[in-house]
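Q: My labmate handed me this sequence with no annotations at all. I'd like to see what the chain might look like in three dimensions before we decide whether it's worth expressing. Could you predict it?
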Amino acid sequence: MFERDLEKELKKWKDSPIRKVLILRGARQVGKTSVVRKFGEENFEQLVEINLEQKEQREWFDGVQSVTDFSTRVELFLKKRLIDRQTLLFIDEVQESPNILELLRFFAEHRPGLHVIVAGSLLEAKMEGKWSVPVGRVEYMYLYPLTFFEYLTARGESPWRNYAETLKIGEHIIGGETLKKLFLEYMLVGGLPEAVAGSVDGLGMNVVKEIQERVQSAYRDDIGNYAREAEKKYLELVMTMAPKLAGGLFKYENMGESGYRGREIGEAVDTVEKIMLLTQVKSINTTTIPIFSKPKRAKKMIWLDIGLVNLANTSHETLFKGSYQGRLMEQIVGQTLVAGGVRKKTDVYYWSRNRDVGSAEVDFVIQHGGRLVAMEVKSGETREMKSLFSMMKEGGKGIMPMRISWAGWGMETYHYDKHSYEILSLPFYLLERWVEWAG
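A: Here is what I predict for the chain of 439 residues:
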Protein backbone atom coordinates (compact mmCIF):
# COMPACT_ATOMS: atom_id res chain seq x y z
CA MET A 1 0.00 0.00 0.00
CA PHE A 2 1.60 3.25 -1.16
CA GLU A 3 2.18 6.30 0.96
CA ARG A 4 0.17 9.22 -0.43
CA ASP A 5 0.69 12.91 0.25
CA LEU A 6 -3.02 13.17 1.08
CA GLU A 7 -2.32 11.33 4.34
CA LYS A 8 -0.64 14.46 5.74
CA GLU A 9 -3.84 16.44 5.12
CA LEU A 10 -5.95 13.67 6.64
CA LYS A 11 -3.89 13.86 9.84
CA LYS A 12 -4.48 17.63 10.00
CA TRP A 13 -8.19 16.98 9.54
CA LYS A 14 -8.16 14.37 12.32
CA ASP A 15 -6.66 16.80 14.82
CA SER A 16 -8.60 19.89 13.77
CA PRO A 17 -10.88 21.43 16.43
CA ILE A 18 -13.30 22.51 13.67
CA ARG A 19 -13.36 19.17 11.90
CA LYS A 20 -16.45 18.28 9.85
CA VAL A 21 -17.54 15.20 7.95
CA LEU A 22 -14.99 14.76 5.15
CA ILE A 23 -16.08 13.95 1.60
CA LEU A 24 -13.18 12.49 -0.37
CA ARG A 25 -13.60 13.05 -4.10
CA GLY A 26 -11.75 11.35 -6.92
CA ALA A 27 -12.21 9.17 -9.98
CA ARG A 28 -12.40 5.43 -9.65
CA GLN A 29 -9.10 3.55 -9.40
CA VAL A 30 -7.09 6.45 -7.92
CA GLY A 31 -6.79 4.80 -4.50
CA LYS A 32 -9.43 6.48 -2.32
CA THR A 33 -10.44 3.32 -0.47
CA SER A 34 -6.85 2.21 0.09
CA VAL A 35 -5.66 5.54 1.44
CA VAL A 36 -8.59 5.81 3.89
CA ARG A 37 -8.06 2.25 5.12
CA LYS A 38 -4.37 2.88 5.64
CA PHE A 39 -5.09 6.13 7.44
CA GLY A 40 -7.74 4.51 9.64
CA GLU A 41 -5.60 1.53 10.60
CA GLU A 42 -2.61 3.71 11.48
CA ASN A 43 -4.39 6.50 13.36
CA PHE A 44 -7.46 5.01 15.07
CA GLU A 45 -8.17 2.15 17.42
CA GLN A 46 -10.99 1.02 15.14
CA LEU A 47 -11.94 1.38 11.48
CA VAL A 48 -15.59 0.81 10.60
CA GLU A 49 -16.12 0.52 6.87
CA ILE A 50 -19.42 0.47 4.97
CA ASN A 51 -19.59 0.01 1.20
CA LEU A 52 -22.93 1.06 -0.24
CA GLU A 53 -22.24 -0.62 -3.59
CA GLN A 54 -22.76 -3.91 -1.78
CA LYS A 55 -26.47 -4.63 -1.99
CA GLU A 56 -26.82 -6.11 1.48
CA GLN A 57 -25.15 -3.17 3.17
CA ARG A 58 -27.03 -0.62 1.08
CA GLU A 59 -30.40 -2.17 1.93
CA TRP A 60 -29.52 -2.34 5.62
CA PHE A 61 -28.39 1.27 5.98
CA ASP A 62 -30.41 3.09 3.31
CA GLY A 63 -33.53 3.47 5.46
CA VAL A 64 -31.68 5.12 8.35
CA GLN A 65 -33.66 7.87 10.10
CA SER A 66 -31.14 9.56 12.38
CA VAL A 67 -27.54 9.48 13.60
CA THR A 68 -28.65 7.39 16.59
CA ASP A 69 -30.48 5.00 14.29
CA PHE A 70 -27.36 4.75 12.12
CA SER A 71 -25.19 3.87 15.14
CA THR A 72 -27.65 1.19 16.17
CA ARG A 73 -27.63 -0.35 12.71
CA VAL A 74 -23.82 -0.45 12.75
CA GLU A 75 -23.87 -2.36 16.03
CA LEU A 76 -26.46 -4.85 14.80
CA PHE A 77 -25.02 -5.43 11.33
CA LEU A 78 -21.25 -5.09 11.85
CA LYS A 79 -21.09 -6.00 15.56
CA LYS A 80 -19.07 -2.84 16.22
CA ARG A 81 -19.76 0.19 18.37
CA LEU A 82 -18.93 3.70 17.13
CA ILE A 83 -16.72 5.31 19.80
CA ASP A 84 -15.94 9.02 19.70
CA ARG A 85 -12.26 9.89 19.07
CA GLN A 86 -11.40 6.19 18.74
CA THR A 87 -13.38 5.15 15.65
CA LEU A 88 -12.99 6.20 12.04
CA LEU A 89 -16.28 5.65 10.22
CA PHE A 90 -15.71 5.22 6.47
CA ILE A 91 -18.70 5.13 4.12
CA ASP A 92 -17.65 4.22 0.58
CA GLU A 93 -19.63 4.84 -2.64
CA VAL A 94 -21.95 7.11 -0.72
CA GLN A 95 -23.72 8.29 -3.89
CA GLU A 96 -25.72 5.03 -3.78
CA SER A 97 -27.81 6.34 -0.89
CA PRO A 98 -29.33 9.85 -1.05
CA ASN A 99 -30.73 9.22 2.42
CA ILE A 100 -27.29 8.77 3.98
CA LEU A 101 -26.02 11.78 2.05
CA GLU A 102 -28.71 13.85 3.68
CA LEU A 103 -27.79 12.43 7.08
CA LEU A 104 -24.20 13.70 6.83
CA ARG A 105 -25.22 17.20 7.84
CA PHE A 106 -26.32 15.95 11.27
CA PHE A 107 -23.15 14.14 12.34
CA ALA A 108 -21.45 17.41 13.28
CA GLU A 109 -24.35 18.29 15.58
CA HIS A 110 -25.11 14.91 17.16
CA ARG A 111 -21.73 13.14 17.08
CA PRO A 112 -19.04 15.87 16.88
CA GLY A 113 -16.47 13.54 18.44
CA LEU A 114 -16.86 10.90 15.73
CA HIS A 115 -14.49 11.00 12.76
CA VAL A 116 -16.42 10.40 9.51
CA ILE A 117 -15.04 10.09 5.98
CA VAL A 118 -17.23 9.34 2.98
CA ALA A 119 -16.12 8.72 -0.61
CA GLY A 120 -17.91 8.58 -3.92
CA SER A 121 -16.49 8.27 -7.41
CA LEU A 122 -19.67 9.20 -9.28
CA LEU A 123 -21.11 11.57 -6.68
CA GLU A 124 -21.70 14.76 -8.67
CA ALA A 125 -22.80 13.02 -11.88
CA LYS A 126 -25.16 10.56 -10.24
CA MET A 127 -26.65 12.85 -7.61
CA GLU A 128 -27.11 15.98 -9.73
CA GLY A 129 -30.45 17.54 -8.85
CA LYS A 130 -31.16 14.92 -6.17
CA TRP A 131 -29.05 16.23 -3.33
CA SER A 132 -28.18 19.63 -1.95
CA VAL A 133 -24.68 19.87 -0.49
CA PRO A 134 -24.97 20.64 3.23
CA VAL A 135 -23.02 23.90 3.05
CA GLY A 136 -20.90 24.45 6.13
CA ARG A 137 -21.60 20.94 7.42
CA VAL A 138 -19.01 19.02 5.38
CA GLU A 139 -15.55 19.60 3.95
CA TYR A 140 -13.82 18.20 0.89
CA MET A 141 -10.52 16.71 -0.18
CA TYR A 142 -9.49 15.47 -3.61
CA LEU A 143 -7.35 12.52 -4.65
CA TYR A 144 -5.73 12.06 -8.05
CA PRO A 145 -3.32 9.55 -9.57
CA LEU A 146 0.16 9.49 -8.04
CA THR A 147 2.30 12.51 -8.85
CA PHE A 148 5.93 12.10 -9.84
CA PHE A 149 7.14 12.70 -6.28
CA GLU A 150 4.68 10.13 -4.97
CA TYR A 151 5.84 7.74 -7.70
CA LEU A 152 9.44 8.12 -6.51
CA THR A 153 8.38 7.14 -2.99
CA ALA A 154 6.39 4.16 -4.26
CA ARG A 155 9.32 3.02 -6.37
CA GLY A 156 11.67 3.06 -3.39
CA GLU A 157 13.48 6.17 -4.60
CA SER A 158 12.82 8.31 -1.51
CA PRO A 159 16.40 9.70 -1.49
CA TRP A 160 15.82 11.12 -4.98
CA ARG A 161 12.50 12.57 -3.87
CA ASN A 162 14.06 14.17 -0.82
CA TYR A 163 16.80 15.60 -3.00
CA ALA A 164 14.33 16.99 -5.55
CA GLU A 165 12.19 18.52 -2.80
CA THR A 166 15.08 20.28 -1.05
CA LEU A 167 17.06 21.68 -4.01
CA LYS A 168 17.45 25.42 -3.70
CA ILE A 169 16.56 27.60 -6.64
CA GLY A 170 19.47 27.93 -9.05
CA GLU A 171 21.50 25.25 -7.26
CA HIS A 172 23.44 22.87 -9.50
CA ILE A 173 21.43 19.68 -10.05
CA ILE A 174 23.34 16.50 -9.32
CA GLY A 175 21.99 13.56 -11.29
CA GLY A 176 19.65 15.52 -13.52
CA GLU A 177 19.78 12.78 -16.15
CA THR A 178 18.71 10.21 -13.57
CA LEU A 179 15.75 12.35 -12.52
CA LYS A 180 14.82 12.81 -16.18
CA LYS A 181 15.01 9.05 -16.77
CA LEU A 182 12.77 8.40 -13.76
CA PHE A 183 10.32 11.05 -14.94
CA LEU A 184 10.10 9.51 -18.42
CA GLU A 185 9.48 6.13 -16.81
CA TYR A 186 6.70 7.72 -14.75
CA MET A 187 5.14 9.12 -17.91
CA LEU A 188 4.93 5.62 -19.38
CA VAL A 189 3.55 3.97 -16.26
CA GLY A 190 1.30 6.82 -15.18
CA GLY A 191 0.02 7.36 -11.67
CA LEU A 192 -2.85 4.88 -11.30
CA PRO A 193 -1.99 2.85 -8.17
CA GLU A 194 -2.55 -0.55 -9.80
CA ALA A 195 -0.31 0.31 -12.74
CA VAL A 196 2.36 1.70 -10.41
CA ALA A 197 2.19 -1.48 -8.32
CA GLY A 198 2.69 -3.57 -11.45
CA SER A 199 5.75 -1.55 -12.38
CA VAL A 200 7.21 -1.56 -8.86
CA ASP A 201 6.74 -5.35 -8.68
CA GLY A 202 8.75 -5.72 -11.87
CA LEU A 203 5.92 -7.17 -13.96
CA GLY A 204 7.03 -5.27 -17.06
CA MET A 205 5.39 -2.72 -19.32
CA ASN A 206 3.25 -5.30 -21.13
CA VAL A 207 1.49 -6.14 -17.87
CA VAL A 208 1.26 -2.45 -16.96
CA LYS A 209 -0.38 -1.82 -20.33
CA GLU A 210 -2.90 -4.61 -19.65
CA ILE A 211 -3.74 -2.96 -16.34
CA GLN A 212 -4.21 0.40 -18.04
CA GLU A 213 -6.48 -1.15 -20.68
CA ARG A 214 -8.59 -2.81 -17.98
CA VAL A 215 -8.98 0.45 -16.08
CA GLN A 216 -9.89 2.40 -19.21
CA SER A 217 -12.49 -0.26 -20.09
CA ALA A 218 -13.92 -0.03 -16.57
CA TYR A 219 -14.36 3.72 -17.02
CA ARG A 220 -16.29 3.14 -20.24
CA ASP A 221 -18.43 0.47 -18.56
CA ASP A 222 -19.30 2.93 -15.78
CA ILE A 223 -21.31 5.04 -18.20
CA GLY A 224 -24.37 2.89 -17.59
CA ASN A 225 -24.23 3.71 -13.89
CA TYR A 226 -24.96 7.41 -14.28
CA ALA A 227 -26.18 8.15 -17.82
CA ARG A 228 -29.58 8.00 -19.44
CA GLU A 229 -29.83 5.87 -22.57
CA ALA A 230 -30.08 8.90 -24.85
CA GLU A 231 -26.80 10.30 -23.48
CA LYS A 232 -24.68 7.19 -23.79
CA LYS A 233 -23.51 7.64 -27.37
CA TYR A 234 -22.16 11.11 -26.57
CA LEU A 235 -20.45 9.93 -23.42
CA GLU A 236 -18.92 6.95 -25.23
CA LEU A 237 -17.50 9.31 -27.84
CA VAL A 238 -15.98 11.57 -25.17
CA MET A 239 -14.48 8.59 -23.32
CA THR A 240 -12.84 7.46 -26.57
CA MET A 241 -11.72 10.82 -27.93
CA ALA A 242 -10.68 12.74 -24.81
CA PRO A 243 -7.46 10.76 -24.13
CA LYS A 244 -6.52 11.22 -27.79
CA LEU A 245 -7.08 14.97 -27.56
CA ALA A 246 -5.20 15.34 -24.26
CA GLY A 247 -2.71 18.18 -24.13
CA GLY A 248 -4.29 19.98 -27.06
CA LEU A 249 -7.16 22.32 -27.86
CA PHE A 250 -10.56 20.95 -28.76
CA LYS A 251 -14.09 22.08 -29.58
CA TYR A 252 -17.38 20.41 -28.79
CA GLU A 253 -18.83 20.70 -32.29
CA ASN A 254 -18.16 17.64 -34.45
CA MET A 255 -15.70 16.14 -31.96
CA GLY A 256 -13.81 13.27 -33.57
CA GLU A 257 -15.53 13.97 -36.89
CA SER A 258 -18.66 12.52 -35.29
CA GLY A 259 -21.10 15.01 -36.75
CA TYR A 260 -22.62 15.50 -33.29
CA ARG A 261 -23.73 18.96 -32.25
CA GLY A 262 -21.76 21.03 -29.79
CA ARG A 263 -24.52 21.19 -27.19
CA GLU A 264 -24.75 17.41 -26.68
CA ILE A 265 -21.00 16.93 -26.67
CA GLY A 266 -20.54 19.85 -24.29
CA GLU A 267 -22.95 18.29 -21.83
CA ALA A 268 -21.17 14.94 -22.13
CA VAL A 269 -17.75 16.53 -21.55
CA ASP A 270 -19.14 18.33 -18.48
CA THR A 271 -20.43 15.02 -17.13
CA VAL A 272 -17.11 13.25 -17.58
CA GLU A 273 -15.43 16.19 -15.88
CA LYS A 274 -17.79 15.81 -12.91
CA ILE A 275 -16.62 12.23 -12.37
CA MET A 276 -13.08 13.66 -12.44
CA LEU A 277 -11.77 11.81 -15.48
CA LEU A 278 -10.88 15.01 -17.31
CA THR A 279 -10.27 18.72 -16.82
CA GLN A 280 -11.26 21.42 -19.26
CA VAL A 281 -8.67 24.20 -19.33
CA LYS A 282 -10.56 27.33 -20.38
CA SER A 283 -9.25 30.40 -22.17
CA ILE A 284 -8.73 33.87 -20.73
CA ASN A 285 -7.70 36.96 -22.69
CA THR A 286 -6.85 39.46 -19.97
CA THR A 287 -4.15 39.74 -17.31
CA THR A 288 -6.39 41.17 -14.59
CA ILE A 289 -7.73 39.54 -11.44
CA PRO A 290 -10.21 38.00 -10.81
CA ILE A 291 -10.09 35.65 -13.77
CA PHE A 292 -13.07 35.35 -16.10
CA SER A 293 -12.87 32.68 -18.78
CA LYS A 294 -14.12 32.90 -22.36
CA PRO A 295 -16.65 30.04 -22.53
CA LYS A 296 -17.08 30.04 -26.33
CA ARG A 297 -13.40 29.60 -27.11
CA ALA A 298 -11.71 26.24 -27.61
CA LYS A 299 -10.70 24.43 -24.43
CA LYS A 300 -7.56 22.45 -23.67
CA MET A 301 -8.09 18.81 -22.73
CA ILE A 302 -6.36 17.26 -19.72
CA TRP A 303 -7.16 13.59 -19.16
CA LEU A 304 -6.96 11.90 -15.77
CA ASP A 305 -3.67 10.06 -16.22
CA ILE A 306 -0.65 10.30 -18.51
CA GLY A 307 -0.39 6.51 -18.72
CA LEU A 308 -3.91 6.25 -20.15
CA VAL A 309 -3.14 9.07 -22.59
CA ASN A 310 -0.14 7.17 -23.93
CA LEU A 311 -2.21 4.01 -24.14
CA ALA A 312 -4.78 5.75 -26.34
CA ASN A 313 -2.37 7.56 -28.62
CA THR A 314 0.71 5.65 -29.60
CA SER A 315 3.08 2.79 -28.99
CA HIS A 316 5.76 3.22 -26.36
CA GLU A 317 8.43 3.05 -29.07
CA THR A 318 7.29 6.31 -30.68
CA LEU A 319 6.20 8.00 -27.50
CA PHE A 320 8.57 10.98 -27.41
CA LYS A 321 8.89 11.68 -31.12
CA GLY A 322 7.23 14.15 -33.46
CA SER A 323 4.45 16.63 -32.77
CA TYR A 324 2.85 14.36 -30.18
CA GLN A 325 5.67 15.13 -27.78
CA GLY A 326 4.47 18.72 -27.30
CA ARG A 327 0.91 17.66 -26.41
CA LEU A 328 2.25 14.95 -24.15
CA MET A 329 4.28 17.42 -22.11
CA GLU A 330 1.32 19.79 -21.83
CA GLN A 331 -0.78 16.86 -20.58
CA ILE A 332 1.70 15.98 -17.83
CA VAL A 333 2.07 19.62 -16.77
CA GLY A 334 -1.70 20.10 -16.68
CA GLN A 335 -2.22 16.83 -14.83
CA THR A 336 0.38 17.81 -12.23
CA LEU A 337 -1.15 21.25 -11.70
CA VAL A 338 -4.63 19.77 -11.22
CA ALA A 339 -3.31 17.17 -8.76
CA GLY A 340 -2.02 19.95 -6.52
CA GLY A 341 -5.57 20.83 -5.48
CA VAL A 342 -5.98 18.61 -2.42
CA ARG A 343 -8.20 20.90 -0.32
CA LYS A 344 -9.66 22.89 -3.21
CA LYS A 345 -9.76 22.16 -6.91
CA THR A 346 -7.10 24.03 -8.84
CA ASP A 347 -8.57 26.28 -11.52
CA VAL A 348 -6.25 26.10 -14.52
CA TYR A 349 -6.55 28.31 -17.62
CA TYR A 350 -4.58 29.23 -20.72
CA TRP A 351 -4.06 32.76 -22.02
CA SER A 352 -4.93 33.63 -25.59
CA ARG A 353 -4.89 37.13 -27.01
CA ASN A 354 -7.83 38.32 -29.07
CA ARG A 355 -7.09 37.64 -32.72
CA ASP A 356 -7.89 41.20 -33.78
CA VAL A 357 -4.80 42.37 -31.86
CA GLY A 358 -2.47 39.54 -32.86
CA SER A 359 -1.85 35.86 -32.16
CA ALA A 360 -0.36 34.82 -28.82
CA GLU A 361 -1.02 31.90 -26.48
CA VAL A 362 0.46 30.94 -23.08
CA ASP A 363 0.01 27.28 -22.15
CA PHE A 364 -1.17 27.50 -18.52
CA VAL A 365 -2.26 30.27 -16.15
CA ILE A 366 -3.20 29.95 -12.47
CA GLN A 367 -4.32 32.67 -10.09
CA HIS A 368 -2.08 32.49 -7.04
CA GLY A 369 -2.90 35.08 -4.42
CA GLY A 370 -2.87 38.48 -6.09
CA ARG A 371 -0.83 37.41 -9.11
CA LEU A 372 -1.15 35.27 -12.21
CA VAL A 373 1.36 32.46 -12.63
CA ALA A 374 1.97 32.02 -16.36
CA MET A 375 3.65 28.82 -17.59
CA GLU A 376 5.13 28.18 -21.01
CA VAL A 377 5.79 24.48 -21.72
CA LYS A 378 8.74 23.65 -23.96
CA SER A 379 9.22 20.02 -24.95
CA GLY A 380 12.20 20.71 -27.22
CA GLU A 381 15.26 22.92 -27.24
CA THR A 382 13.69 26.19 -28.40
CA ARG A 383 13.89 29.16 -26.06
CA GLU A 384 11.43 31.29 -28.02
CA MET A 385 8.62 32.58 -25.81
CA LYS A 386 7.03 35.50 -27.67
CA SER A 387 3.58 34.76 -26.27
CA LEU A 388 4.82 34.76 -22.69
CA PHE A 389 6.65 38.05 -23.27
CA SER A 390 3.46 39.54 -24.73
CA MET A 391 1.44 38.51 -21.68
CA MET A 392 4.09 39.94 -19.36
CA LYS A 393 4.12 43.20 -21.26
CA GLU A 394 0.37 43.51 -20.73
CA GLY A 395 0.31 42.30 -17.13
CA GLY A 396 3.52 43.83 -15.81
CA LYS A 397 4.37 42.90 -12.23
CA GLY A 398 1.09 41.06 -11.88
CA ILE A 399 2.55 38.14 -13.85
CA MET A 400 4.88 35.49 -12.38
CA PRO A 401 6.39 33.81 -15.49
CA MET A 402 7.74 30.26 -15.63
CA ARG A 403 9.34 28.19 -18.36
CA ILE A 404 8.76 24.44 -17.94
CA SER A 405 11.23 22.34 -19.94
CA TRP A 406 14.03 19.78 -19.69
CA ALA A 407 16.67 22.49 -19.47
CA GLY A 408 17.34 25.25 -17.02
CA TRP A 409 16.92 25.68 -13.29
CA GLY A 410 16.63 29.07 -11.68
CA MET A 411 15.98 32.66 -12.70
CA GLU A 412 16.94 33.54 -16.27
CA THR A 413 17.04 36.90 -18.05
CA TYR A 414 15.56 37.22 -21.54
CA HIS A 415 15.69 40.20 -23.86
CA TYR A 416 12.85 40.76 -26.31
CA ASP A 417 11.55 43.79 -28.16
CA LYS A 418 13.80 46.19 -26.20
CA HIS A 419 12.61 44.80 -22.86
CA SER A 420 14.26 42.53 -20.29
CA TYR A 421 12.26 39.76 -18.59
CA GLU A 422 13.11 37.64 -15.55
CA ILE A 423 11.66 34.16 -15.90
CA LEU A 424 11.89 31.14 -13.63
CA SER A 425 13.12 28.10 -15.53
CA LEU A 426 11.85 24.87 -14.03
CA PRO A 427 12.59 21.26 -15.13
CA PHE A 428 9.59 18.97 -15.63
CA TYR A 429 10.71 16.73 -12.78
CA LEU A 430 10.62 19.65 -10.31
CA LEU A 431 7.25 21.02 -11.44
CA GLU A 432 5.50 20.06 -8.19
CA ARG A 433 7.50 22.77 -6.42
CA TRP A 434 6.12 25.61 -8.53
CA VAL A 435 4.00 26.97 -5.65
CA GLU A 436 7.12 27.64 -3.54
CA TRP A 437 8.42 30.11 -6.12
CA ALA A 438 5.12 31.67 -7.11
CA GLY A 439 5.43 34.23 -4.33
